[in-house]
Amino acid sequence: MLDLGFVRANLELVEEKLRARGADPAALLGDFRALDKSRREAITQSEQLKARRNELSQQVGALKKAGKHDEAAAVMDETRALKDKLDELDKAAAALDEQLRLSLARVPNLTRNEVPTGTSEADNKVVKTWGEQKKYDFTPKPHWEIGESLGILDLERAAKLSGARFAVYMGAGARLERALIGFMLDMHTQKHGYKEVLPPFMVNSKSLFGTGQLPKFAEDLFRCSDADAEAATRGEFRDSDHWLIPTAEVPVTNLYRDEILDEVRLPISFAAYTPCFRAEAGAAGKDTRGIIRQHQFQKVELVKFTRPEESEAEHEKLTRDAEEILEALSLPYRRVLLCTGDTGFSSAKTYDLEVWLPGQNLYREISSCSNFEAFQARRANIRYRPSTGGKAKPEFVHTLNGSGLAVGRTWLAILENYQQDDGSVEVPAALRAYMGGLDKIVREF
Predict the structure, then answer these.
(1) In 10 A of CB 175, how many CB atoms?
(2) Which residues pair with 335 in a beta bridge?
(3) What burial class does residue 69 get, using C-beta atoms within 10 Å of its C-beta: 0-12 exposed, 13-18 middle, 19+ buried?
(4) What is the per-residue DSSP string for 15-53?
(5) % of the chain at pLDDT higher than 70
(6) Do residues 302 and 404 lie in contact, with contact meaning Cβ atoms separated by under 8 Å?
(7) Domains of the chain
(8) Which are the contacts of 24, defined by CB distance < 8 A and separation ≥ 6?
């Protein structure tokens, strides 16, 4: 969420940044200046009346002490009248404050100046390419054909169990998924210095509000059937409802919701494996083949809490940590800086890592690494206390996160990049210890 004082002081800049995202400032902010003015006027009038009420209360005491009870009664009548006006002003100020809160809750983060201006993924900027695309003596197949022919991926039975956009992994396919999770967690904890955390797979509305999924993206989430979850779509966030997490970013970021951290602890770096659940409400007809876009998939997520002045450097480091997984697996990829129109709601700057898929002859996103600056921290009220200055005022941390990596997409990238002309799939050297020494996946019956 943006800071109210910042928006007030920089409204033209905010509107310009929103237009660069392809958003309509008027639709998001309404008549911000008029609303903010009315709110401040109500607060000012309330404070003036409270001051007057205090004066009258002192007068009442003095008059009673002097034995002037009739005059004291008259002043008390005026005090009661002021109370009624104060109640009205306080209600008006509270209503206006709620309007501003709901308005700002709908406003996306402002992108950093180095983010290229654009309207879609076509305007994203490729900033790095790594690895050579393998040349094949045969026509490479897409992962869904490889998985089916090897008997390690069953989409038909998954549809029988749960419907479209689900998968069943069998045999070496299931083991490969498990091997990737262990490999990624070990790499991030043992080499990159992240602390492993296993969070709940369900969260409440306040957690989803904190990271920016609610209220805007409610239709993309799976919610449990309770009344509070329904209320959350109207902007009412409670503790007693439950949603399936769309990513570990949500529970891990909210670990420190409403807390003040000691500066000496920063940066804090977490790595978390979780399943992820997404309704994919806006993806009708997209990526219907294979396991590119699923309602349930697995991911290893990286989350950081940093000082504001360190978040840019930590963003580069987090992205590099994700890249090293791809390099260890010898999977060709590219790093893409997203343009303003393609940057996510809560992000100030995002790099996408896209892995090369020879069976489809294209690059596909496998990780999205974002710097949210103070946007999520302000929504979730996550602050730190500077260690200098004694009684220094707490400040908002900066939060970052990125996939390290999306496990299912890494799985399919291995099938497509390591396929052999006899239909088998070579196991990457880095994974063989996690696969019990298996070096090749062959047909399972």
Answers:
(1) 19
(2) 128, 353
(3) exposed
(4) HHHHHHTT--HHHHHSSHHHHHHHHHHHHHHHHHHHHHH
(5) 94
(6) yes
(7) 4-105 (1.10.287), 121-201+245-441 (3.30.930.10)
(8) 18
**In terms of Cα–Cα distance, which of 359, 408, 402, 406 is closest to 176?**
408
| Other CB atoms within 10 A of residue 62 CB | 13
Cis (ω within 30 of 0) for the bond into 108?
no
Measure CA 334 to chain center: 22
Contact 267, 303 (CB under 8 A): no
- 104-137 burial code (b ≥16 CB/10 A, e <16): bbbbbbbbbeebbebeeeeebeeeeeebeeeeee
Query: Are residues 326 and 356 in contact, defined by beta-carbon separation less than 8 angstroms?
Result: no
**And the tokens for 383?**
């602050």
Task: Say how many C-beta atoms besides its own lie within 10 A of residue 50's C-beta.
Answer: 14
- The whole-angstrom separation of Cα 288 and Cα 294 is 9
**pLDDT average, residue stretch 36-44:** 88
> Residue 90 and residue 312: Cα distance in Å, rounded?
42
Average pLDDT, the chain: 92
pLDDT digits (tens, 9 = 90+) for 224-275: 876 666 666 666 766 678 999 999 999 999 999 999 999 999 999 999 999 9
Residue type, position 172, single letter: A
The candidate with the shortest Cα–Cα distance to 410, out of 71, 177, 75, 142, is: 177
Angle subtended at Cα 232 by Cα 298 and Cα 383, rounded to the nearest 5 degrees? 75
Q: Which residues contact 317 (CB under 8 A, 6 or more apart)?
A: none
What residues contact residue 257 under an 8 Å CB cut-off, 6+ apart?
Answer: 206, 207, 210, 380, 381, 382
Q: Is 263 exposed, middle or buried (0-12, 13-18, 19+ CB in 10 A)?
A: middle
Q: Which residues of 190-201 are buried (b: 16+ CB within 10 A; e: fewer)?
A: eebebeebebee
